[in-house]
């Protein structure tokens, strides 16, 4: 890769907009499309969606679990999704949320960030809750290969605050500490760092009771936009001056327009149009 991920995602946001399309073959969506819950249905669904959405979105985000549940043949479909999306000019953020220690994290990094791997993506999601330093092998691999890592910081699931809002011995929240680590990794990077935060589109805007500083000089992945309830107004309230760096992620909100490829592409264009206000300030 000739440019680091931060540079590539910054250019993609400028050229293609802020929509991140989730390619998540839920059982229910397969059935809505009139497909069977088998590898053939998975392949038809995933490739149809990718071929329609990747040409018009800056980033596509396949959730690995929906492919892994079919075993090796499902993973083979995931490999094709990654290749197809890249051929269409989209960046690929592989949603794996991996987090472990030592050689295991290094192996995950080899699987998802090394260009020699058939599963290599432009970036991955990762969990820091074995300690942020446990992600060092992923960080090192991302730097070596020009890739990116999006670290869970403020998720919108109801269980998240149990950990993320807890207070550290230093008196700040765990989420704020994760954001501090990312800010440090991105120091001095231009036009944008390669290490992003995952911040849900429904977490609520920071107020006096929160110590979150989302200005990390990196991209911000906001899942929960669209069908899960997050709106453009929510994104503006939550991200404020950092809204131009947000990738607003939606899956079901787009995929329900399938299996018609034209309907999928039109829905993506409409969402991107709605998100332009984030770059206007």
From TrEMBL:
Q: Which residues form the Orotidine 5'-phosphate decarboxylase domain?
A: 18-267
Q: What is its EC number?
A: 4.1.1.23
Name the catalysed reactions. orotidine 5'-phosphate + H(+) = UMP + CO2
Question: Which UniProt keywords are listed?
Answer: Decarboxylase, Lyase, Pyrimidine biosynthesis
Q: What class of enzyme is it?
A: lyase
Domain of life, per UniProt, equals Bacteria
Q: Which InterPro entries does the protein's record reference?
A: Aldolase_TIM, OMPdecase_AS, OMPdecase_type-2, OMPdeCOase_dom, RibuloseP-bd_barrel
Q: Which CDD domains match?
A: OMP_decarboxylase_like (cd04725)
Which Pfam families does this one have? OMPdecase
What the entry lists under Gene3D superfamilies is as follows: Aldolase class I (3.20.20.70)
Which residues catalyse the reaction?
A: 97 (proton donor)
The protein's annotated pathway: Pyrimidine metabolism; UMP biosynthesis via de novo pathway; UMP from orotate: step 2/2
Q: Which HAMAP family match?
A: OMPdecase_type2
Which family, according to the similarity comment? Belongs to the OMP decarboxylase family. Type 2 subfamily.
Database matches in NCBIfam families: pyrF_sub2
Q: What is this protein called?
A: Orotidine 5'-phosphate decarboxylase
Q: Which organism is it from?
A: Nocardioides bigeumensis
Classification lineage: Bacteria, Bacillati, Actinomycetota, Actinomycetes, Propionibacteriales
